[in-house]
Write a structure and sequence with these properties.
It is a single chain. The protein has 209 residues and is mostly helical. It contains eight helices and no strands.
């Protein structure tokens, strides 16, 4: 299917759904925990136009992956900034896994036209991949903020400074992996690692659906 031009359309739809759910979940959790910043900026919404990033959307067609605009969060509005920031971050990947679980039910038990079936399976897969990817403990991904909960309090200030300084390093690795290593060597280091986690998570979701 990946050689079919329709795949790119399906992929775009799948990423729009996954990113919108992901970012709206961040906004909803932040608002629930006392930070109205995202809500005040109109991000507490499933409207894709509120969440899509122009460059991230373009990357869908270039590299088969993309991203949305980060949801603005003011940790000073939280009662427990570190814990509540981690919960806000975790809400994004969790929403992707829940979306995949919900989609698995009709896919397993309802016969649908071929194109609908293909599209929904891709939406399910993309939600799982996006959820797993964002759990990686590298900045600016959600996992780096979730991991902060396990950092001793005396080291948290240094940890957050490290995150700010290492964002560029991870982005450089990502670009190198996608555009150089994959194109010249035929494989992606990141995907070689993630695919096993993806298959495991997908099997668990399909068992639960």
């Amino acid at each position: 299917m990946e050689t079919d031009p329709i795949f790119y359309l399906y992929l775009a739809v799948a990423l729009v759904v996954a990113i919108s759910v992901h970012e709206a979940a961040h906004a909803a959790m932040a608002y629930h925990l006392g930070d109205p910043t995202a809500k005040n900026q109109g991000r507490l919404s499933l409207n894709p136009l509120k969440h899509l990033d122009p460059i991230g959307t373009l990357m869908v067609f270039i590299a088969h992956f993309g991203w949305g605009k980060p949801v603005p969060v003011n940790p000073y509005n939280f009662k427990n900034p570190v814990k509540d920031s981690a919960l806000t971050s975790f809400a994004g990947p969790l929403s992707n896994f829940v979306t995949a679980l919900v989609l698995s039910i009709p896919l397993k038990y309802i016969a649908m036209p071929g194109w609908t079936n293909d599209l929904l399976w891709l939406v399910l897969d993309v939600n799982i991949v996006l959820g797993i990817f964002n759990l990686l403990p590298f900045p600016p991904l959600d996992g780096s903020k979730i991991f902060a909960v396990f950092v001793p309090k005396r080291m948290q200030k240094g940890y957050f400074q490290f995150l700010k300084k290492s964002e560029v390093a991870f982005l450089i690795f990502l670009v190198t992996d996608i555009f150089l290593i994959r194109n010249f060597l035929g494989f992606s280091i990141l995907w070689e690692v993630l695919q096993y986690v993806f298959l495991f998570v997908k099997s668990i979701i399909l068992l639960g659906g």
